Amino acid sequence: MQRRHLLAGLSLAPLLPQAAWARPDFASFLARLQARARAAGIPASIVRQTTGSLVPNQKVLKLDHHQAEFTMTWAEYSSHVLSQTRIANGQTKAGGARNLLAAIVSRYGVSAGALLGIWGVETNYGANQGSFQIIDALTTLAWDRQSKFFGTQVIDAMRIIANGDAPGASSLLGSYAGAMGQPQFMPSVYLSTAVSFSGNGAPDIWNSDADSLASMANYLAKAGWKAGQPSSEAVLAPPSLGAANTGRKVVRSLAYWEDLGVQRLPGAQNLPGATPAALLLPDGAGGQAFLVYANFSVIRRYNPSDFYALAVGALGRMVLSA
Predict the structure, then answer these.
(1) pLDDT value, residue 238
(2) Residue 132 lies in a domain
(3) pLDDT in tens, 182-233
(4) Is the predicted pLDDT of residue 16 greater than 70, yes or no?
(5) If 0-12 CB within 10 Å is exposed, 13-18 middle and 19+ buried, where does residue 20 land?
(6) Across all residues in the chain, what is the average pLDDT?
(7) Which of 86, 105, 156, 292 maximizes the CB count within 10 A of its CB?
């Protein structure tokens, strides 16, 4: 049976925490990071405001050092992520945001299902954004992991404040790994991708559904979203199609898979036979089967997990099917 290893939180960097003896003391590290921020053009007043009194966040260290590693089947993972409560919450949110979603889809060409799927999987439609102060968490991770990546994210978070996009460090909240707001953007992604769809100043991905959904759509559009195509769909696959002949990298035409006996379900979107597609059997032969399209890889840019991308597509379909 095919399985996947799923780590809690976003897949942000491949580095593991450094052994305590291998890292510098926090004060020395912080002084160097502060100098790096000033050299990057961050005003000294912002550097002092955001990092002047920082100490390592012990809760961040505990969570980072003890990430739970789960070995789940797709059936187990999907039963957790695609709960009836999450689907129902999504239907309520979608109903209240119908006009907003239509406007965003029109602007960016990204499907409402993809946006609702990401919104639901990432933060339960904004309800579970995380309560960590981002600069505090990122600085702790940058020191503990001796990570240039996280250090750069600290400076980008300072830049958000310096730009006037947030009043101070206490207003930048998110996960212990540094992902912010309803879309769970890293600071660098906020700077490059977040948009103010509401028109109320700087992008507010914490409190504004409009800014959050439009920012997700902008991210997917920049990543190459193909308008009018799904990301994935559940199908029926003949037992003869074992896992060895399938997978995300085995891209053939839709007609090719149908000729091999793959059956699309009633209500499936009408697509040309030449549409490139791959067949996924996430739990191996005998389990659920999915055809995945170019937009599946776009969702994987958001989080590089097949399970995640399948769940986003499935949740979007379930929410909109009511």
Answers:
(1) 93
(2) no
(3) 999 999 999 999 999 999 899 999 999 999 999 999 999 999 999 999 999 9
(4) no
(5) exposed
(6) 92
(7) 292
Q: Does residue 186 belong to any structural domain of this protein? A: no
Count CA within 13 A, CB hemisphere, residue 6. Answer: 20
The count of structural domains within the chain is: 1
Pair of tokens at residue 62: 């505990």
Q: Is residue 32 part of a domain?
A: no
Mean of pLDDT values over 264-273: 96
Cα 229 off chain centre by: 20
Residue pair 262/235 in contact by the 8 Å Cβ criterion:
yes
> What distance, in Å, lies between the first and last C-alpha atoms of the chain?
33
CA angle, corner 258, sides to 257 and 263, nearest 5? 110
Candidates 175, 131, 127, 125; CA nearest to 150 is 175
Contact yes or no for 296/232 (Cβ under 8 A): yes
- CA–CA distance, 234 with 313 (Å, rounded to integer): 10
What is the Cα–Cα distance from 253 to 255, expressed in whole angstroms?
5
CB–CB of 157/122 below 8 Å? no
Q: Which band of pLDDT confidence, cut at 50, 70 and 90, is reported for residue 18?
A: low
Helix axes 112-123, 84-96, angle to 10 degrees: 130
Residue 202 lies in a domain: no
- More confident call, 17 vs 291: 291
Burial of 248 (0-12, 13-18, 19+ CB in 10 A): middle
How many C-beta atoms surround the C-beta of residue 291 within 10 A? 23
d(CA 78, CA 72): 9
Query: Could you list the residue range(s) of the whole structural domain that residue 282 is in?
Result: 232-292
Residue 118 corresponds to which tokens in the numbers above? 């990401």
Q: What is the DSSP letter of 14?
A: S
